[in-house]
Amino acid sequence: MIDQIASLGRSSIELVISFGRAGRFLAGVLSGVPRPATGFPLLLKQLYSVGVLSLAIVVVSGLFIGMVLGLQGYTILSDFGSESAIGQMIALTLVRELGPVVTALLFAGRAGSALTAEIGLMKATEQLSSMEMMGVDPLRRVIAPRLWASFLAMPMLAIIFSVVGIWGGMLVGVEWLGVFEGSYWGNMQASVDFWDDVVNGVIKSVVFGFVCAWIAVYQGYDCVPTSAGISSATTKTVVYSSLAVLGLDFVLTAVMFGNF
Amino acid sequence: MGLSSYISLKDVVFSRSGRRIFDGVSMEIPRGKITAIMGPSGTGKTTLLRLIGGQLQPDAGDITVDGHSVPALRRKALYALRTKMGMLFQSGALFTDLSVFENVAFPMRVHTKLPEDMIHDIVLMKLEAVGLRGARQLMPSELSGGMTRRVALARSIALDPELILYDEPFTGQDPIAMGVLVKLIRDLNSSMGLTSVLVSHDVKESLSICHYACIIADGKVIGAGTPAELQNHPSEQVQQFLQGHPDGPVPFHYPSSAAAEDFGLAGDVL
């Protein structure tokens, strides 16, 4: 019993220490003011790597999720004779919830794990140490561009996901199942509010992007520099990011749409 | 050696994961010479280089490089001091997403505002010095182990440093690559007037090029002097290391309980 309590205490202390280290790490990354001449090309390169290269998975997933929503929405709504509201249902579901959440989960799996593995390998092969010994801060040179690029890419990817999803829903609902196109777009326009729905969805994706990027770069930088250590860090990135996104989604949804 | 020392360690104590690695290490590394730091594996030779470079902080004691107390330096000053240092890592530590040319150009691009054509010429000169001008377009994955270290060496001298730290430069090298590295270290030291610190457990190669050597074991300096002085050192531990004897003050067996106990024969007559 005493051992279990001691073990719980040890785990709690380790958790707090880990949060402290991650916080100090983040402060170190954000404290440097990037020089535009050197910082911008690095940022562009990372935007391509984490953003453009994630486009394919985001677009394909968005399309299929939109199509599934179209099918399910039609089946459910037609029972009540209100299949014309399918556009409204698909748009609100995607913009408020599925767009930011699913994009963040895909982002953690595709770009987050790649970031962790890349930084971890740079650590294991002493590239980060050699940079330090050259008088170059790896936090600013390697970590900061990746963090900022992820932070910027996530909202854009989430918007693209939602747009493609709405189009996929239209393909199924309108083109296949025969819902009137005017009611699909008209109901959507009437019910989706720019500030309450679109902006809140974008805010969610900004928060998720920041958290996923922080977890990914920190796990890579803090990993044990061995193959087992990198593998474990990559797994942690995906698991922690997914849990953080789902947990934060509940909190943000409660704050934004809870009407307390 | 006092006035001409480039690096000075005074009573350095350093522990990691509860293990005392250095227990009051003191040494002077002279300016413009090659100093070899040798010792058995796991004695903290690489750790010593990281302490000199300020990547690790000692628990006690002081380390000065060119008159600057490294542990007391603030981040900006430490990074400025590091521009006067070059370090050759055991793995080479080349940036895998950059070509050989870009790897060597990297420190110049970050720390200088030299025009592109001048960077081009300097990079080619550095690569020529290590015999790899023709390999400038290759990627690190296309290089052999010896070539990787030579490119890393070219990169570490890109900014014409005053000090160069070599971390196990000969490990895993074939005889030709080892001969090339020995020649390069000797030539670079004499032609550029560098202060060189060479961490290695390759006794023959290290003693053949160093001016001074220092042997570390059990967290302390157990022998120091010129190669000739070390060869005649009275310490048994120094002689065991230099001659490579399998047993001696450093025992062949890792400390363990009695063999009979481990084999379940306690009490039996063997």
UniProtKB/TrEMBL annotation, chain A:
It comes from the Bacteria. Pfam families: MlaE (PF02405). The lineage of its organism: Bacteria, Pseudomonadati, Pseudomonadota, Gammaproteobacteria, Pseudomonadales. Its main location: membrane. Part of the ABC transporter complex MlaFEDB, which is involved in a phospholipid transport pathway that maintains lipid asymmetry in the outer membrane by retrograde trafficking of phospholipids from the outer membrane to the inner membrane. Probably responsible for the translocation of the substrate across the membrane. Keywords: Cell inner membrane, Cell membrane, Membrane, Transmembrane, Transmembrane helix, Transport. One of its GO terms (cellular component) is ATP-binding cassette (ABC) transporter complex. It is found in: Cell inner membrane. It is a multi-pass membrane protein. Belongs to the MlaE permease family. InterPro entries: ABC_MlaE_roteobac (IPR003453), MlaE_Permease (IPR053408), Permease_MalE (IPR030802). It comes from Marinobacter antarcticus. The chain crosses the membrane at residues 47-71, 147-178, 198-217, 238-257. One of its GO terms (molecular function) is phospholipid transporter activity. This is Intermembrane phospholipid transport system permease protein MlaE. The gene is mlaE. The complex is composed of two ATP-binding proteins (MlaF), two transmembrane proteins (MlaE), two cytoplasmic solute-binding proteins (MlaB) and six periplasmic solute-binding proteins (MlaD).
UniProtKB/TrEMBL annotation, chain B:
GO terms for molecular function: ATP binding; ATP hydrolysis activity. Keywords: ATP-binding, Nucleotide-binding, Transport. PROSITE patterns: ABC_TRANSPORTER_2. Pfam families: ABC_tran (PF00005). Residues 7-243 form the ABC transporter domain. This is ATP-binding cassette domain-containing protein. It comes from Marinobacter antarcticus.
